[in-house]
Design goal:
By secondary structure, this protein is mainly α. It has helices at residues 17-24, 54-59, 64-68, 71-83, 88-99, 105-120, 132-141, 151-163, 165-169, 173-179; strands at residues 36-37, 42-43, 195-199, 205-209.
Length: 210
């Protein structure tokens, strides 16, 4: 059985079991039921039909658009950004996407203010990295919020993620562990790379050789 943690010289991807549970729990489809064999004392893998297909995962490497417009791709990328302590970028992008779906004009102003205060203002708790011109323009848009008032800021953050964190994500265990071909060997030298994450009845991550 492989270890669920992967490490590097800098300890960049080293997490506690508790952290790994939160970071990787999204990787598999939710299972309505989970069989447990008391005689063998092992957690059973969920069926392959519930897993991500290799085709789905490989499409994530084609573009950031493909990745973050796929529910589990977005979840994987979000978990990776959390490991880098830069999750505010994807959270801002998601908030903007949700904001643009607002149907009631009366809700635009309070929703816009909430996003602005959380991600853009000087005292923002999750301030994103925007140039002064974009920040000033977005601030001006708050006077009369519209569905497009965050468009420029959202594009800037998307581009930032696309050129930086997205490229690192594709080289990280968060992606490589999912794109490894089925049946790949799992010897001592590559055990940490070639493994699949399974989900037990208590939503705990169990790492097993492919």
């Amino acid at each position: 059985q492989c270890n669920a943690l992967s490490s590097s010289p800098s300890g960049f991807f080293s997490f506690s079991a508790k952290d790994m549970k939160h970071r990787l729990g999204f990787l598999l489809q939710k299972s309505d039921s989970c069989d447990y064999s008391s005689s063998q004392g092992k957690k059973e893998k969920i069926s392959s039909s519930q897993r991500l297909s290799q085709e789905e995962v490989r499409k994530w490497a084609e573009s950031l658009e493909n990745l973050i417009h796929h529910d589990r791709g977005l979840a994987a990328f979000r978990a990776f950004l959390k490991s880098e302590y830069s999750e505010e970028n994807i959270e801002f992008w998601v908030s903007c996407e949700e904001y643009k779906k607002t149907k009631s004009p009366a809700k635009l102003s309070p929703k816009a203010r909430k996003i602005y205060d959380e991600f853009i203002s000087v005292q923002a708790t999750k301030e994103v990295n925007l140039d002064s011109c974009t920040r000033e323009k977005t601030s001006h848009n708050m006077l009369e919020p519209t569905l497009s008032c965050f468009d420029e800021a959202q594009r800037k953050i998307f581009t930032l993620m696309e050129k930086d964190s997205y490229r690192r994500f594709l080289k990280s265990p968060y992606y490589l562990d999912l794109v490894s071909p089925p049946g790949a060997g799992c010897g001592p030298e590559n055990c940490k790379r070639n493994h699949t994450h399974t989900l037990d009845c208590n939503s705990n991550i169990i790492s097993q050789c492919a």
